[in-house]
User: What shape does this take?
Amino acid sequence: MGKKSLNITVLGAGESGVGAAILAVKLGHQVFVSDGGPIKDSFKAELDAAGIEYEENGHDKARILKSKLVIKSPGIPEKAAIIKAIRQRRIEVISEIEFAYRNTDATIVAVTGSNGKTTTASLIYHIYKKAGLNVGLGGNIGNSFAKMVAEDPKEIYVLEISSFQLDDCVYFAPYIAILTNITPDHLDRYDYKLENYVDSKFRIIQKQEKTDHFIYCADDPETLKAFARKKIKSNAHAFSYNHKVDDGAYWNEEQQHITLTIDEDPMNIEDLALQGKHNAYNSMAAGMASRLLNIRKETIRESLSDFDALEHRLEPVMEIHGVEFINDSKATNVNSTFYALESMKKNLVWIVGGVDKGNDYEQLIPMVGQKVKAIVCLGKDVSKIHTEFEGVVETITDAHSMKEAVTAAYKLATKGDAVLLSPACASFDLFENYEDRGRQFKEEVRNL
Assistant: This one.
């Protein structure tokens, strides 16, 4: 961005917005932060400490339109009035990810996809840390990328990146880009067109060069379809559960282990900490991203066998009178819930519902018919869930709070069953976010 001081507005004062503002001030720019809603006290304290001007519960349009650059938080849709006004003025709009990228020379490993991106990014970070690398983890998970660049610079960043963050990336080009899979998600933000969402995901490789790497799933139909119509400059490496791969990774069905073939010297990994087909995919991608940075095989093996499961992702909570409670609050789309149901061995009482992002529940019907004995619908509008599963599951009941949902599920379960919170929906109707939903679930289970 050069040394010239710019007049910058940051829209949205959450984790990413505050991080971007802190980096911008450190670089000597004039910064104003504007949030259409209230700003959390913890974020206000950070802005005050950095001497950054901000406003909340509305936008000073005249002031914002004088900006040279706008850094937009991923949650703000294009149809927002303030964005339309900024676009009309032809002011450059970028994401916090793009802004941080322009101001660091670190090696970037970026993970996107509809499902598995948090687990994959966390696995890679775990391996890199174990290998003694100077690495940070951030993006859509935990820390703001920009704030790390400003306050705690690393040689390598592992970033989980959502499609919304990619939408406002221009020059962003990770050394290693990973696309876990593409299933219909957030279609409400993409004019209900899957192709628009796919294009958004593929922005992760749009500026990659011949020396960069792209890791993708060879079993994912949407990825393959897009692959055929995209020009890909970087070195592409596939991973597959269904067939052998020469330059990538695959699941060896006979031996029940994964094999990495991404370099001359293939390696097998027998002992995976995370079970289930979806986790085999995540482990393959993480193993490949580690071999590309020449991390020792022993370190990769060890890391993939001693990794702890993530909070809110098929997280065992506790067992009460022989009923197991599992928190999968992070399953905010249908495909994520499909994986959760697929990996369950017990009869299930399933807690589902929330803000529907254009969900198609049809693909879940066979799995639900096989594994689910009762459904508890949690959310303000659950009519679609009733319509979809009424002929499939005998008992469907509604709950309007987490306490109600957990109590109802516990009553419906018998010894040897599991109660699974896997909502397949966003959380914003009753909760702050999926973490809040997961924590409330755990609290109510402990209160039983």
